[in-house]
Amino acid sequence: MNRNKIGVGILVLATLLIGMVLMPAVSAQAEKDYSVTAEEAFKHASANMISFIAADAPGFENWTGASVDPKPVELYDINGQKLFYQFSVYKEKKLIGTIDIYANKTLGNSFNDIAFDPETYKVAEAIKKSKEIAKNEYPDGEIKSTKMVVYSYPSIGAMTIIKDKVTGVKHRIFVDAYTLEEVEDKPATETEPGVWSMYEMKLENGVEENLKEWEKSDQLIKSIEQAAANKGVNINAAVTEENIEKLSADVVTPKASGITLPVTKRGQENDVYCGCACCQMIGEYICDIYQTQDYIYEFEGHDPDNLKGGLSIPDAVDYCKSWSGLAQRGTDDDYTLSSMGVIGEINNNRPFMSLIKGHFRLCYGYLSSGSLVYMYIIDPKPVGSGSYIIERCGANNEVARVYVRPS
User: Fold this and answer.
1) Is residue 324 located within the same domain as residue 396?
2) Per residue, what are the HEC states of 266-297?
3) Nearest to 332 by CA among 316, 349, 356, 350
4) Residues 184 and 325 reside in one and the same domain
5) Diameter over CA atoms, the chain
6) Which contacts of 206-209 are long-range, i.e. CB under 8 A and separated by 24 or more positions?
7) Assuming Cys at both sites, which of 140, 225, 276, 331 could form a disulfide with 296, CB separation 3.0 to 4.6 Å?
8) Both 138 and 48 in a single domain?
9) pLDDT the model gives residue 320
10) Cα separations (Å) of 172 from 80, 175, 313?
11) In 10 A of CB 43, how many CB atoms?
């Protein structure tokens, strides 16, 4: 199998915590407003981008010369609170990536993910359609608000809240920003699409612990900003080769290393085929055998002509175990979500399924620097295309994994 191995590189700015004495964390009790301003978030986005470029991390090889647009899209949670600032990254006026920074310190480490060459979504159209549906379904209602939301991470859409003037009951209307299809307002499950609050999931770690994580990330960003300023570099400007060289010179830091596997990206063919797409990618990579997503869905006892939810974890495990060429390898679902699990599987040439609530994705690589490990993810969404992202391992997004291992 071919591998794209990262030579051991220097993660220049992302690891400047070594040898530094961090300032004490701000007391959670003393701080009343935990919101993050767009200006703060912009600094975090720019510094994270520079860190990956300086590390020569996979996916960032051609990002020299890129810059972050300081005007983000504000994305909300379905609970109505601001969740992300989504910054666009441009190179030569072309969109090459997006960076999501959390909008509230109680949600933990500021960095959520970077998407490579993202498909643009339809903000105006989604907002318009959600309002139209709201007025059609509740003609006597009063529209209270319409916001762009992360309704089922990573899915983005418009949410309109309309209030019945007679009963006072409020209703939510969701429209996906990629497909412009209405999304039913019901809880997402392992096999059924729906909506869920990422905000609430992030708070499961506890506010105090999350505030400590945010403080660590903020101190890291400040150290990057200061190191750049000392060398006459503005981290908020376009990243030049000259500036990267300046920032790399004479800096003693831990090494960064990682691997990405050349897995062919497959987008899911409809809203419930994320598990089928991941089975398809793993089977094709490990066995060089291609099966359609309809075939995989039907193999597990479902009717492609009558979609009723996606694959379950046991379905995915069963399919991988049963597939010709994988029978000797075996498969098991592992709920231990450690960074060492990521490194071990990828080092052994085994992509695996990384599940978030109600959604299958595929991990095809990692980047490791000090105590930080990042996962390279192929997300089968958006429908029909899929996407490449990098996110921090242990960010409390994963709920399960499915490993495909030799027996």
Assistant:
1) yes
2) CCCCCCCCHHHHHHHHHHHHHHCCCCCHHHHH
3) 316
4) no
5) 70
6) 207/28, 207/106, 208/28, 209/108
7) 276
8) no
9) 87
10) 11, 10, 30
11) 21
The residue among 175, 200, 225 that closes a domain is 200
Domain harbouring 363, CATH code:
3.90.70.10
pLDDT in the model for residue 337: 82
Residue 2 lies in a domain: no
- Number of domains, the chain: 3
pLDDT averages per 10-residue partition of the chain, 407 residues: 40 33 41 87 92 85 91 96 96 95 95 94 97 95 97 95 92 96 92 91 89 92 82 76 65 65 96 95 89 95 92 90 59 74 92 92 91 93 92 84 80
Beta strands at 141-152 and 73-77: parallel, antiparallel or unpaired: parallel
Q: Based on the domain organization, do 237 and 365 belong to the same domain? A: no
Q: Which amino acid is at 307?
A: L
Do 156 and 272 share a domain, yes or no?
Answer: no
- Please name the residue that has the structure tokens 């500021």: 110
Q: What DSSP designation does 35 have?
A: B
How high is the pLDDT of residue 407?
62
DSSP assignments along 201-260, one per residue: HHGGG-HHHHHHHHHHHHHHHHHHHHHHHHTT--TTS---HHHHHHHHTT----EEEEEE
Taking the alpha carbons at both ends of the chain, their separation in whole angstroms is 19
Contact 342, 397 (CB under 8 A): no
**pLDDT on residue 282:** 93
Q: Is there a single domain that holds both residue 170 and residue 48?
A: no
The whole domain housing 283 covers 261-404
202 by Cβ neighbours in 10 Å (0-12 / 13-18 / 19+) ranks as buried
**315 and 369 housed in the same domain:** yes
